[in-house]
Each structure stands twice: as C-alpha cells, then as structure tokens.
Amino acid sequence: MKDEVESRDDRVANLKGMGCSRKRVEDARFTQGKGNYVDDIKLDGMLFGDFVRSPYAHARVTNIDTEEALKVPGVLAVLTAADLEPLGLHWMPTLAGDKQMVLADGKVLFQGQEVAFVVAEDRFAAADGIEAVEVDYEELPVIVDPFEALKTDVVLREDLVAQDGSIPDGAHGPRTHPNHIFTWEAGEKEATQQVLDNAEVLVEESMYYHRTHPCPLETCGCVASMDKVNGKLTLWGTFQAPHAIRTVVSLISGIEEHNIRVVSPDIGGGFGNKVGAYPGYVCSVVASIVTGKPVKWIEDRMDNLMTTAFARDYHMTGKISATKEGKITGLHCHVTADHGGFDACADPTKFPAGFMNICTGSYDIPTAFLEVDGVYTNKAPGGVSYRCSFRVTEAVYFIERMVEVLAIELGMDAAELRRINFIKKEQFPYKAALGWEYDSGDYHTAWDKALTSVDYDGLRAEQAQRVEDFKAGKTRKLMGVGLSFFTEIVGAGPVKNCDILGLGMFDSCEIRIHPTGSAIARLGTISQGQGHATTFAQILASEIGLPADSITIEEGDTDTAPYGLGTYGSRSTPVAGAATAMAGRKIRAKAQMIAAYLLEVHDNDVEFDVDRFVVKGAPEKFKTMKEIAFAAYNQAIPGIEPGLEAVSYYDPPNMTYPFGAYVCVMDIDVDTGVPEIRRFYALDDCGTRINPMIIEGQVHGGLTEALAVALGQEIAYDDMGNVKTGTLMDFFLPTAWEVPNYETDHTVTPSPHHPIGAKGVGESPHVGGVPCFSNAVHDAFRAFGLRQTNMPHDHWRIWKTANELGLHD
Amino acid sequence: MIPAAFDYYRPTKMDDVIALLKEHGDDARVMAGGHSLIPMMKLRMAEIPHLIDLQAIDGLNEISIKDGQITIGAMVTQHDLINHAGLEAAAPILREAALQIADPQVRYMGTVGGNVANGDPGNDMPGLMQCLDATFALVGPGGERSVAARDFYEAAYMTAREDEEVLTSVSIPVPQGGYAYEKQKRKIGDYATAAAAVQIVKEDGKCTAASIAMTNLSDTPIYSADAGAALVGTAVDAAALTAAKAAMLGDIDPTEDNRGPVAFKKHVAGVILARAIERAWSRA
Ligand SMILES: Cc1cc2nc3c(=O)[nH]c(=O)nc-3n(C[C@H](O)[C@H](O)[C@H](O)COP(=O)(O)OP(=O)(O)OC[C@H]3O[C@@H](n4cnc5c(N)ncnc54)[C@H](O)[C@@H]3O)c2cc1C
Fold first, then answer.
1. Which residues of chain B neighbour A301 with C-beta distances below 8 Å?
2. Measured between CB atoms, does B24 come within 8 Å of chain A?
3. What is the pLDDT of residue B22?
4. CA A470, chain centre distance (Å)
C-alpha cells in the first residue's frame, strides 16, 4: 500500500498544511478573467439605478424636478427623499451610532452626496436621466476645516440640535458644539500633566494625517432582487461584512432576517471601503421592491473616490517627555478628527476613535493620556478605510513621529532611542498605560535583526558623508534613513468590549467532512483578495489531517455560511482562523473516538499523527482520516452519531498584537522634490505563519499602499468643499513603475492565546509602512533642522520643505 | 462616466470626413486614438453628437524620411514612433519624448496627430514639435494648407485649425546636433509638472544653434526663442545656462494646480531646462 511506503515528511507535504507556501487556489480564475464580481451578475429584466449627486458641499435643496428625466427613453422612476420618507428610509443608521441621509432630505452636506436615484432599463439611460433631473440648490457657507467647524455658528446638522437650541448628547456622550460629535478620553489626565510638567525633556509637535482613500480596483455596488412570490430579498454586493449587512437591512426595512439573503461574490479589494452600508444599497432594495425587478447599482471611479468611505483626516498634537538619557516618561495626545457630514465610521461601539489608544506604540511609557474630538465638516462621511475606524495607522504614525521628534530634541540616534524604550520581552503580557494588554512580543530581537540586515551603521556613515558632500556643493541629493517600529492591535474582538451596532465581534466556522474524505468549510468572513480559500484550508489540513486540496472554503453567502462579522481590521485569521482551528479540533475529537472503535482500543490509546490516528506505541496500527471519514457515515458505531461535522463560534479572549521593524533608504532630489526609494526592508512578526507566500504578498501590497499614502495619495478639498483629487489623474494609485523592490523578513512570536498562535498580517505593512516612508523624508532633512512636515510628501511639498530650509539659496 | 449619446461614423475617404465636418460644424469631431477625446466625453466635459473615426482612412499611417525631411502621418501612433528604427536614427528626440508619454496601453492607441491637434497644454508633442520647428499639414473644404507648429497654438484647446479641417501629417526638418526631452511627472501616465525639449548644435566647442520649447507651463506650449539665443555663441557654461533659464522663465506663465504652486513650477522648469540642456550638449 502507498501509505506504508510514504515517509512522514511526504505525508506532511501532501497535506499542504500550515507553514507551506501553497499556491493560491483563487488565482486560477482571477488570472484568467473568470472571477465573478457583482457587476458580472446579470439577471432577467434587471434594471440599473444611479445617483444624481450634489455639485455643492453645503446647500439647501429647495426643489427637485424629475419631469424631464422621466421622459428620457428607458428611464422608469426617479426616487427622492420624499418617496423614501413614508417608508422611513430617507435616513439610515450608520455603524457609528449616527444616522445618515439616504437621499438629500432638504439639504446636502458634502459634494457628491446622493440627491435622487434614477432607475432605468440600462446604465446608459440612467446616465441620461441623471442629466435631466433638475435640482434647485441654495448654497450655504462651506466648512472644510474642523477647527473652524468648532467655532462657527454655521450648523451642519440641524437634526442634531434641539428646538430650544441646546445640544443633545450624541451616541458617545456630551457634545460641546452643534458641529461636535464626541469627546473620547483614555488614560490619566492629571497624572500625565504632572509628568509632563516635571519632565527633564519635553517636546510638543502637531501633525496632520491627511484624508485619503483606498481606491479598490472594484468600486462599490450591489444587485437587489425582491422575489414578490416568496417574499425573499436577495442582495448581492461588495460587502466586507455580509451578515452584518443582512441584520442592518432587516432592522431598517422590517423584512424578517430569514427572508433576506446577502451574498458577497468575488470582491476586488476592500480595504474597509466596503464595510459600511451605503445609500446605493438602500435605494436598490427599494427600487427592486417598487418595480418587482432586480436592480443593479455600481459606482464609477469618481463616485467611489468622492463619496464612499475615506481614511484618516486626523489632526494630532502630541507632547512627549523623557529623561535626559532618553527614557520616555509620559505621552499626551490630542486629536481633532474630521468625520465629514455624518459619522459613518465602523468602530466598535465603545471606541469612537477606534483603538487610537494604542498610541503608546511599542514603548514602555508609564503614563499617558489621549483625548479625541470628533467633528462634522462638509466632507464625505466614512472614516472606515485603510484600518481607519480602528485608527491604528494614525496611532502608529503619531508615536513613530513623536519618537523621531524626541530623538532630534535629545540629539540622539532614533534607532537607539527606540531600543532603550521598547517593552522588554519579559514584560509580556504587558499592560499599556492606555488600557490594552499586549499579548506577546520580542521587539529587541526584531529590531536588532532589522538594523543588522540593512547595515544600519553603514547607512548612517554614508548619510553623514552625503551631508558633507551636499554642503560642499558636490551633490544635490540628500539621503534619508526612515525607521519605524510598530505594534498592531488586530483581531477585533472580544465580545466583552467589541461590538458593532450591538453585534458581538466573534467569528465562526462550520465544517462538513464528506464520506470520501474531502470537506467543505464555511466561515463568517469574506475574502477580498487575501486568499482565504487557500489559507483556511491549510489551517484545517493541519488540524484534521485531510489535504488542503480536498477542502473547499466557502464564504459570503448568508444562507449557507455561519454568522460572523466579516473581514476587515486584519480580523479573519485571529478570529475566524481561530474558529476554524477550534472546529477542526472538534472534528478531530470525534474522529479519535471513531478511530479507537475501528482499531478496537480505548479512546486514549490512539493519538493523532499528521493524517491519521495511530495506536500509541504501535504506529503500524492506524486509521487514516480518510478511512475515519468513511466510517463516520457508513458504519454503525455504538454511542456515536453518524456524520462528521462541527461548528465553532470563537470569541477571542484578547486582541493579537503583530509587530514589525521597517527601514527605508531614500534619496531626495532637493531641487525637484523627487524622492527615490533605494531600499525598503520589512520585518514582520505575525506569529505563526500559515502561508509565507501569502504573507509576503500581503506585505508587498500593504507597503505599496503605504508608499502611496506617504508620498502623494490624498483626497484634497478646496475651500468650497470641491474634491480636487476625484480622478486617477490626480489621485495617486501607484503602479509597478513607482514601486521599489521590497525585502521581506520575519521573526516568529506566536500569540499565546490564539489556538494556532497566528496574529494577522493584512494591515501591518500599511500601519508600519506609512511612518517609515514619512520618516525617511524627514530624516533626509534632519541635518538641516527639519522637525515636522506633513504628508503627503509629494514633489512640491518636499520641494517646499527644502525651500523653507534655505536649500535653494 | 458615460458619455452623452452620439452618432458614430467611420468613413473611408477624407472627402467624406470633410463633408461630415461641414454638415455638422461644431457638433462634429474627428477621433484618432480617442485617448484624449473619449475621457472628455465620459466626463461630459465634451458633448459630441457626431463622432467621426479616422481609423479607416488610408494614407495617414506612414512615416517617411527623405531629403532631410521627416513626414509623420497623423494616425501614426506613439507606439509606432518609438519602434521605428529610421526615426530613432534620424530624430532620436521623438523616441525619448514618446517614451515619457502616458503608458504602453495609451501609446498603442494615441496618435501623433491627435496629440498635436488636441491643444491641451499638457500634451508633450506640441512643445516637442515647436522645438523641432515642425509644420502641420491641414486639409479642409478649401483644400490643403500648412501651419508652423510655432504658430499653431492660441490658447488651451484653441488652435489655428478650423473646425472643418483635418490634420493629415507633421513634417520636420531632420534635426541636427544633440537632443534631450526632460520631463518631471508625479507618476507614470501623468502629464508634465514641467518638461523641456532641447536640440543643440555644437561646433568647435561652441553652441551655434539651439532650440528650446517647454510643456505644461502656460496655456499653450512655449517655444522660447530667447532661451535658445542665450546659448548660441557660448560654450554652454554655467552663465549661459543661467541666461537661458532666465529667458525661459520670462516666457512661461504657469498656474497653480495639484502638481504644485507657481513658485515651485517655475523653479522646477528652470531645473528641468538646465538638465535638458546639459544632456543635449553632452550628446551634441
Ligand atoms: C492615462 C493617460 C495618460 C496620458 N498621458 C499623456 C502624457 O503624459 N503626455 C501626452 O502628451 N499625452 C498624454 N495622454 C494623451 C494621449 O497621448 C492621447 O492619445 C493624445 O493626447 C491624443 O491622441 P489621440 O490619437 O488619442 O486623439 P483623440 O483623443 O482621438 O483626439 C484628441 C483631439 O484631437 C482631435 N484630433 C485628433 N486627430 C485629429 C486630426 N488628425 N485632425 C484634427 N483633429 C484631430 C480630436 O478631434 C480631439 O479633439 C494621456 C492619455 C491618457 C488616457
């Protein structure tokens, strides 16, 4: 028999389980153009809906005339707020406890806001119908600056001011101004103040982390189909959280949840842009109910950039104190957060500024205080993308800039300053000043490995020489060495403190083993390019001893998949991956009983070995998982139900805390402001590594996003609230041309509380990459007195920095 | 991003093109590669009820080099320019410039005629053609005529071409001396923050002729005769570079946009020009 000649190594290799760089099973269809995205869905009689959008950032809508539009051939209906009001659907709840207009209810609050929904036979007729809708606007003063918003008497949200002019509490407590959303605090205010007051060294710095957007290749969209015969609504869409969408649709429409089926087909990138609920979904559902036909809505690129979930827009001011030797003693952070016209973040309920309180970073900072003010402005709502609702990117950028600024103040090397302040290996689990308990880490080892790999001392020597040469007029290029060390907080999260709209943030996996020894597993998450069908099968392969190639992974259909909160915030592996392992272990437990019965020994006398149970001490006596699967269905076993299935809902005991050390070497042309990335080294520690190739791919992608954000990508507004970067001509989406060669590396510090020790990696490179690129730009000018200059570091801003430092004279 | 409805024509004879243009006047437009026109239509910044595709017209795709004259048909693509061995030898600046336009996908479609006729100050070929002192051949209801590239551009999207005229070819005297096309852009596929086309003749260590044109620094391309003149008679030393830069800065008039404020653009224009001159001189 084949099994007998196969070595154990062969058997391990055959499984393609954890730790192997299994090729992505998804790629066969993606690379052949055979993916099935929402816009590929075509149903009989399907109609197309699209929006009339506001050209103004702040205006009253005094009249909407749809008469001409209805005359356009192919146009069937035009929905306005007045049509939705009787259904109570002209506003909808946001995931942040605010509410948002579905269609302009008397006013608009940002450019591109949805004003009317034109339903037509095809998208071309809809486009012509949009042109023919006449909307009368009365312009109002536009507020795009959150600091001004807190001073002005221009009220953006009249719906949030009481009749007597008083300001009722918001979803997150008291509000101080009509345009104020919340104040959120963490840490110890007085104690921090005291530490700062008595500090040997104190620095203060302000920085603006600009608004940007993830710009997934596939924009947002959906197809709604109401079957009037059986009363069932099916909604296909670009949903990162299909189950949550089903619950939200049920709550706002009154349709019972079992009569709603939400399906996420293939998704062409999400990055948080596809977490929230959009007016397009609501209008498509209503239009399908009204017309009795399926209705499709697909954003174009400008719609996507201008109106769906943005990222960042954080104005941060920090104070950091230290001893003369560089030991950090205290940290203070204040944020003015620009949320746009509605608060449509997707934070866990108790965290209106996400996990911004991870802003003490990787350092042992004994005392800290954080204060965040959320503010309404005349900009698009969102704040979900690129890790944005969790605000970890902002937090890491903040601390990694503050550490650099402190190094400048102390005249110290920034790598050394980090080293003396890192949380030490033996301090884990480490309770941070702002509340989190870091599960594990070994920062010094990672840092030393990174610095050695890039020959850090050599780089500094070269840089010093470059400065000399520059001063001597021998070169016009400066050299920057960008450092960053980040600690992520992912895997939201423990139900005790993490919920969205009251839905606990557990996740799930359900496994069915087929009689012939193959399997299907369904999860509450949904891949948007992360390769779940590949990696979750690998977890299971290792747990249940069936080859990954024999395991189908299915996600995204709420009629079949178990309930889960979806994929964002690097939570799939920490939460659903854990559920997968736990469900696999239930399978294994039952398999053990079956094996023992078949081998005629006691349950405890068999043990699992790769792909089989063997009799302890007699390895020639075994039953493979394949044989066990067959027996489970075909043999009457006393005391054991037939079948081999399991389900697990996993509520994580803690978050996981991936970390990493990045170094960027950059040359900057002082005269043109053009930066050139010579080298980028990224060491990631995401705990147990399920598929090294996929990790590397995730790191490459995330670093490329980070490069974009740091060096040019932004959603910029002019004073009138017009979006200046609404097309890919001005919005920077890097291609292979702009991207350097990345060097990846790793250490492995497994999570102590995760069943397989994995921590999540999807967002690490973005989180750690942005400060690394930005620090490289800053570092190039350190010798000439630069302390802080805001991103994005595009050509003209870098040039301006050089100019202001007198380097063009 | 869906254009307004339009009628589509694909005539095979130039006479039919002219007849359609005459019939529909401002409501008609010819389309070459479509890579400037179609985006404008999709953004509904241009509404073109009658779209006349030039792809089926014969005789617009030729490149000829003879008697010191290069002639490039209007429908020659940017990709064709890059891959034409004869052109690479006769006028290498064309290839150097074309390689800095857009990306391969756009260059497979985008044509020389469309690029110079478009009238967008961001296009690279108008400045290039001014530097090379090209002449554009136009055909219209009244027959053929030619206009010098240096006289062709009036303002953004306004050229000497009449509505009923079609640009059929571009003629260039075979350029002499060293060359350079230097362009700063934010990313692949971007129009210039600043670009300079330079052609320089060197004799006995001295510059005897120089031609300089700048792109995307005014509402038209800028041929700076003074900048060229500042180099003539010099050894293209630091003083000459400074003089050429100063002359060029006197001719351009950039405006602020997402690429940056005016001061930045002027500074970069000077840097880019100096680099182009230095490279051209080193090749002269
Ligand atoms: C992503 C992207 C990046 C780009 N980057 C650059 C760049 O860096 N530099 C650059 O120079 N260009 C750039 N372009 C523009 C590109 O080079 C276009 O192809 C070119 O500007 C127009 O050529 P076309 O053949 O596509 O003309 P079309 O788009 O077909 O026509 C453009 C205009 O010229 C008119 N026209 C065309 N042919 C004739 C003719 N024979 N006679 C009279 N009128 C005519 C048309 O009526 C129209 O008004 C870019 C385009 C894209 C989409």
1. 1
2. no
3. 97
4. 41
How far apart are alpha carbons A775 and A756 in whole angstroms? 35
In a domain, B186, yes or no: no
Same structural domain, B218 and B163: no
**What's the CATH fold of domain A38-142+219-267+274-307?**
Aldehyde Oxidoreductase; domain 3 (3.90.1170)
* Tokens 């640009």 -> residue: B167
- What's the structural domain count of chain B? 3
**B123 touches A at CB < 8 Å:** no
Query: What does the buried/exposed string (b/e) look like for A107-139 if buried means 16 or more CB atoms within 10 Å of the residue's CB?
Result: bbbbbbbbbbbbbbbebebbbbbbbbbebebee
Residue A253 and residue A217 in contact, taking contact as beta carbons nearer than 8 Å? no
Question: Which DSSP string do the residues of A73-122 spell out, in sequence order?
Answer: TTEEEEE-HHHHGGGT-SEEE-TTS-EEESS-SSEE-STT-EEEEEEESS
Q: Contact A155/A177 with Cβ under 8 angstroms?
A: no
How far from the centroid of its chain's Cα atoms is residue A495's Cα? 19
> What fold does the segment set A398-491+655-804 form as a domain?
Aldehyde Oxidoreductase; domain 4 (3.30.365)
Per-domain residue ranges for chain A?
2-35+507-650, 38-142+219-267+274-307, 398-491+655-804
Instruction: Sort out which chain A residues have CB atoms less than 8 A from B268's CB and list them.
Output: 671-673, 795, 799
Contact A434, A187 (CB under 8 A): yes
**Distance between CA atoms of residues A170 and A325, nearest Å:** 45
- Is B181 within the bounds of a domain? no
Average pLDDT of A322-347? 96
Token pair for A475: 């070169």
CB pair distance less than 8 Å for B267 and A738: no
ipTM: 0.97
In a domain, B1, yes or no: no
pLDDT digits (tens, 9 = 90+) for B180-190: 999 999 999 99
Q: At A1, is the pLDDT very low, low, confident or very high (cuts 50, 70, 90)?
A: very low
Question: Rounded to the nearest 10 degrees, what angle do helices A795-804 and B262-283 cross at?
Answer: 100
- CA gap A46, A37 in Å, rounded: 16
Considering only CA atoms, which residue is closest to atom 7 of ligand 1? Answer: B101
CA of residue B30 to ligand 1 center, whole Å? 11
Are the beta carbons of A374 and A671 closer than 8 angstroms? no
B271 → closest Cβ in A671, A735, A738: A671
Residue A82: pLDDT above 50?
yes
CATH, domain A2-35+507-650, list 3.40.1190.10, 3.20.20.70, 3.30.365.10, 3.90.950.10: 3.30.365.10
Q: Characterize the bridge pairing of strands A75-79 and A114-120.
A: antiparallel
Nearest CB to A732 within list B186, B191, B193:
B186
- Which domain CATH number covers B241? 3.30.390.50
Query: What residue numbers bound the domain in which B275 lies?
Result: 192-283
Q: Say which CATH number the domain at B132 has.
A: 3.30.465.10
- pLDDT at residue A346, as a whole number: 87
* Cβ neighbours of residue A452 closer than 8 Å, sequence gap 6 or more: none
Identify the active-site residue in A371, A555, A705, A763: A763
- Answer yes or no: is the C-beta of B50 below 6 A from any ligand 1 atom: no
The pairing of beta strand B143-148 with beta strand A645-650: unpaired
Residue-level pLDDT at A615? 98
Topology match between the domains A38-142+219-267+274-307 and A398-491+655-804 = no
- Tell me the two tokens of residue A621: 């006596």
d(CA A14, CA B169): 65
Size of interface A-B (CB pairs under 8 A): 64
Based on the domain organization, do B263 and B235 belong to the same domain? yes
Decide if A763 is catalytic.
yes
Cβ distance B2 to A724 less than 8 Å, yes or no, reads no
DSSP type of residue A691: -
Q: B262: which chain A residues are within 8 Å (Cβ-Cβ)? A: none
